[in-house]
């Protein structure tokens, strides 16, 4: 890029088109010993890799906090799940890493530690918490724990981001706290991780690896995740009940068997289907179609609906379907039609 070649980007034009927070993040996450091939394409990649993911997490929280009339609790007299404890441990790790590296004037390492945390927050914490919030959530105490954890994570994260991306940090922090400015707040302080916290972080990494291997097996055999399967066998280790439940939920598996006597980590999935599994898979597929139609028809997420469908779940699957989709009335019909009540 050079002015004499006619491909130079004037600063004001670049700042307007790219966005100054994106431009800042593009520079701080780049290895300072390497040349930066500045341009709109790499700026778009930076935006997709970080800013859009962060904003989607923030939007997820705002959406369900408003739906559930959430008010942050100053006390911690609610039970945290293993997932909550894990993301808070990762948050403490990130605060510690960012503080240490910035004290050494190393914005590159600090920004990458923050980026890895945002990835964990989005791709695992929020992903596994979608059923914990909203009007169809089965446990109000767990919902409170989830929303409080997300609120703490986002307000702390915005303070970490203030020196790097001051505008998005100001927007998030101001809206979530009502305080004057994130730039007038104190820098967050990391709590020392206990041995249990460190073990949880390591075990969650293993659980995610097992999920990755399980999803690969499903893809190899062309079986969608919406189709439940009976059992997963994990060789070489065992995990806690809560982490096992996360694996079961993410892989849509009814049970997990551990064989810790094996040396190498591997997974085996029972791919056989019976009538009960096929019926549940059909219920999940119908639920997906209904949720997609709700979005297309712009039906409020809290609104109950009535529907007609050529296929209708029966028994406990019908009750689960109605809970998932906020359906009050179900009747048979030649095609899928939904209406807000």
From TrEMBL:
Signal peptide residue numbers: none
Q: Name one GO molecular function term.
A: isoleucine-tRNA ligase activity
Residues in domain Methionyl/Valyl/Leucyl/Isoleucyl-tRNA synthetase anticodon-binding?
A: 84-230
Q: Does the keyword Metal-binding apply?
A: no
One Pfam annotation reads: Anticodon_1
- Keywords (A to Z) from UniProt: Aminoacyl-tRNA synthetase, ATP-binding, Ligase, Nucleotide-binding, Protein biosynthesis
Question: What is the top-level taxon of the source organism?
Answer: Bacteria
Which BP terms in the Gene Ontology apply to this protein? isoleucyl-tRNA aminoacylation
This protein is called what?
Methionyl/Valyl/Leucyl/Isoleucyl-tRNA synthetase anticodon-binding domain-containing protein
């Amino acid at each position: 890029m050079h002015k004499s070649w006619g491909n130079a980007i004037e600063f004001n034009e670049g700042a307007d088109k790219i966005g100054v927070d994106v431009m800042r993040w593009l520079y701080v996450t780049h290895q300072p010993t390497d040349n930066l091939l500045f341009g709109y394409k790499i700026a778009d990649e930076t935006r997709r890799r970080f800013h859009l993911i962060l904003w989607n997490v923030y939007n997820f929280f705002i959406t369900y906090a408003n739906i559930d009339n959430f008010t942050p609790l100053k006390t911690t007299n609610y039970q945290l799940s293993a997932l909550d404890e894990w993301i808070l441990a990762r948050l403490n790790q990130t605060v510690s890493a960012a503080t240490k590296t910035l004290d050494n004037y190393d914005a590159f390492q600090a920004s990458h530690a923050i980026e890895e945390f945002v990835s964990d927050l989005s791709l695992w914490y929020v992903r596994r918490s979608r059923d914990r919030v909203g009007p169809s959530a089965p446990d109000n105490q767990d919902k409170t724990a989830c929303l409080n954890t997300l609120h703490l994570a986002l307000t702390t994260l915005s303070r970490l981001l203030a020196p790097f991306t001051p505008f998005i940090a100001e927007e998030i922090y101001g809206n979530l706290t009502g305080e004057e400015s994130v730039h007038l707040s104190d820098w967050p302080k990391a709590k020392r991780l206990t041995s249990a916290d460190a073990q949880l972080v390591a075990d969650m990494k293993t659980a995610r690896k097992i999920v990755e291997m399980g999803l690969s097996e499903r893809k190899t055999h062309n079986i969608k995740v919406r189709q439940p399967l009976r059992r997963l066998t994990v060789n070489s280790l065992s995990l806690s009940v809560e982490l096992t439940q996360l694996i079961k939920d993410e892989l849509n598996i009814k049970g997990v068997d551990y064989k810790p006597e094996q040396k190498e980590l591997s997974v085996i999935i029972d791919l056989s289907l019976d009538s009960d599994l096929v019926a549940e898979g059909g219920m999940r597929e119908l639920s997906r179609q209904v949720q997609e139609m709700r979005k297309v028809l712009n039906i409020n997420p809290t609104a109950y609906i009535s529907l007609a469908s050529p296929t209708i779940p029966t028994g406990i699957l019908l009750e689960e379907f109605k809970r998932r989709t906020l359906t009050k009335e179900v009747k048979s019909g030649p095609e899928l039609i939904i209406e807000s009540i």
